[in-house]
């Protein structure tokens, strides 16, 4: 349903136009510009478009989200760029410690698609097969300039904040050495960080990922001396205690990472 623009709606369109031209909307500027152009061309907007006009105005007035520098993203971006040639929605799953029962706590990195709010940024969320995707905590996004923008949840929840402090450290390590961290994840957990599949072949356990994922992500894979190969069913119990310094808030089903920041 389209609604002719009243004086009140025109005032909002003009306000949005000012925000677009000032650069206050950042990644949403193109969308905001299109809304303004449609309003002036047709002199009406759909109900959904009017909602977005107000939403963009509200976003511009919201406090800036906290950001933490992660580092140079060239290595991570190169991995995703190669993978996107073979996979529709590539993801990287990384170990971020374990809970009190020794169950690994995992985070997933994925590139925001064109229909998302900030396309091309890297989303960071927990990875838990026991939860629906919308139940998994979103920690924030890594911006193209290497800044990790924390989600509002992280800023208001103490457990999530402590998790994020630890995860930031992991992300910095990953930015510094993407292939090395990917390999360490596979050797440590016995699962590939790219497909999360169990590693069974000796060569796969040695490098931390299988031959198919090596092809998809543009990584080297081949024979390695047997003494470098981890057992296929590498037990979480073998993870050094300092890597497992995590406890579960049973009453809230939140996992709180403790130890390194």
Number of helices: 9
Order of helices and strands: EHHEHEHEEEEEHHHHHEE
Helix % is 25-40%
| Average pLDDT over all residues | 81
Low-confidence stretches: 224-255, 257-261
- Shape designation: elongated
The overall strand count is 10
Compute the gyration radius: what is it?
22 Å
**Strand order within the widest sheet?**
3-8-7-6-5-4
Strand content: 15-25%
Summarize the biggest pleated sheet: 6 strands, antiparallel
Structural class: alpha+beta
Task: State the distance separating the first and last CA atoms.
Answer: 51 Å
Describe this structure in words.
The chain is elongated. The chain has a six-stranded antiparallel sheet. A two-stranded antiparallel sheet has the order 1-2. Residues 224-255 and 257-261 have low confidence and may be disordered. It has 261 residues and is an alpha+beta fold. The chain has nine helices and ten strands. 40% of the residues lie in helices and 18% in strands. Helix 1 (7-22) packs antiparallel against helix 2 and helix 1 packs across helix 3 (47-61). The termini are far apart. It has helices at 7-22, 29-42, 47-61, 74-83, 152-156, 158-176, 178-189, 202-207, 211-217; strands at 2-4, 44-46, 67-69, 91-98, 104-111, 122-127, 138-142, 147-150, 246-249, 254-257.
